[in-house]
Design a protein that fits this description.
It contains eleven helices and 13 strands. By secondary structure, the protein is an alpha+beta fold. The strands form two sheets. Strands 4-3-2-6-5-1-11-12 form an eight-stranded mixed β-sheet. It has a five-stranded mixed β-sheet with strand order 7-8-9-10-13. The structure holds aspartic acid. One of its GO terms (cellular component) is cytoplasm.
Length: about 325
């Protein structure tokens, strides 16, 4: 057995480990852990309390994957619901589809009785108001929101330094390998932008025969490189989990142009080994892991690998003016 989660999964890993230790199914444990992170307002990139998009709305993405059936469920751009991970699980269990977005996802959430919630917390509302006041031109303010957003999208790079989506990977007692993700995506993203978290194969993948992988950071990069599926496929081809992750990092070196920033790749194999690499990561990037030999989950440092100059720090720091309260 093993549970692996990223730095943002801290509030959920204890519960996830407990459920796993009690012999509960990996998907139940992962969903329960992610729900706690979705409720944790200190995590400003997941669920309630997440940063809004350029229009000041919180749009959530989430997914689950059952590695024993290869069924998945995902939602993208979901607004107004407290637990997108549970809506994603309902997509997997109740529909013949794998991914729902926007209004359709919200409609399905309502149909299944998912709990509604005001996602824009006070700190986010204030940060957005500060940004709007300082960055939006007088002409655009007068016409808002009927203005081109492209310029603002380029200027507003993820305001969080080292804060991400939450991802959970688990191998349960019955040897099922599962994955789950949940995120508000990048702060100040273009409305409708989907990252990798609901894109199975990019932001997560699980196959009980080989292992699982999930990524955080710039989803634009893992979508282009097909990272999560690649890691699991490399394990199928016989590579160790370390080698598979390092091969996927190599794949990223081929990305030219577009957004090249920070990505953390988390992976487990089907017998409980794990490996985590922070590509263009920052010192201090860490993750959480629990295996049956541990009294409690342990915090470990990610291996750091540099593949570029790194993220445009100056813009990030500029955005912090609005997000640091
Ligand atoms: N991977 C997420 C996305 O691209 C964001 C993150 O982990 O910070 O939406």
């Amino acid at each position: 057995m093993i549970i692996l989660t990223n730095n943002e999964g801290k509030s959920g890993i204890g519960m996830t480990a407990e459920l796993l230790r009690d012999g509960r199914a990996g998907l139940d444990a992962v969903e329960a852990g992610i729900r706690l992170v979705e409720d944790d307002e200190e995590v400003r990139t997941v669920g309630r309390g997440g940063w809004p998009n350029l229009l000041g709305e919180v749009e959530l993405d989430a997914s689950v994957m059952d590695g024993s059936t290869l069924r998945t469920g995902a939602v993208g751009g979901l607004k107004g619901f407290r637990h997108p991970v549970s809506v994603a699980r309902a997509v997997m269990e109740r529909l013949p589809h794998e991914l729902l977005i926007g209004e359709g996802a919200a409609r399905f959430a309502t149909e299944t009785g998912a709990e509604r919630c005001e996602l824009l917390a006070e700190h986010s509302r204030k940060a957005y108001a500060r940004w709007f006041e300082s960055e939006v031109s007088a002409a655009d303010k007068a016409a808002w929101p009927n203005v081109p957003l492209e310029r603002y999208c380029h200027d507003a790079v993820d305001p969080e330094i080292g804060k991400d989506t939450t991802v959970f990977l688990a191998l349960d007692r019955a040897r099922n390998v599962v994955a789950g993700t949940s995120t508000s995506g990048w702060g100040w993203k273009y409305p409708g932008r989907l990252g990798d978290s609901p894109v199975i194969g990019a932001g997560s993948y699980a196959d009980s025969r080989y292992g699982a992988c999930a990524c955080t950071g710039a989803g634009e990069m893992t979508i282009r490189a097909g990272t999560a599926r690649a890691v699991v496929l490399y394990m199928k081809m016989g590579m160790s989990v370390e080698r598979a992750v390092s091969e996927a990092v190599d794949d990223m070196r081929a990305l030219k142009g577009g957004l090249i920033s920070r990505v953390t790749i988390h992976a487990i194999d089907a017998v409980g080994n794990h490996h985590v690499v922070a590509v263009n990561g920052l010192p201090g990037n860490h993750y959480w892991v629990w295996t049956p030999g541990m009294a409690r989950p342990e915090r470990r440092a990610c291996e750091l690998v540099q593949i570029s100059e790194g993220a445009p720090q100056s813009k990030r720091i500029a955005m912090q003016v609005y997000t640091d309260v």
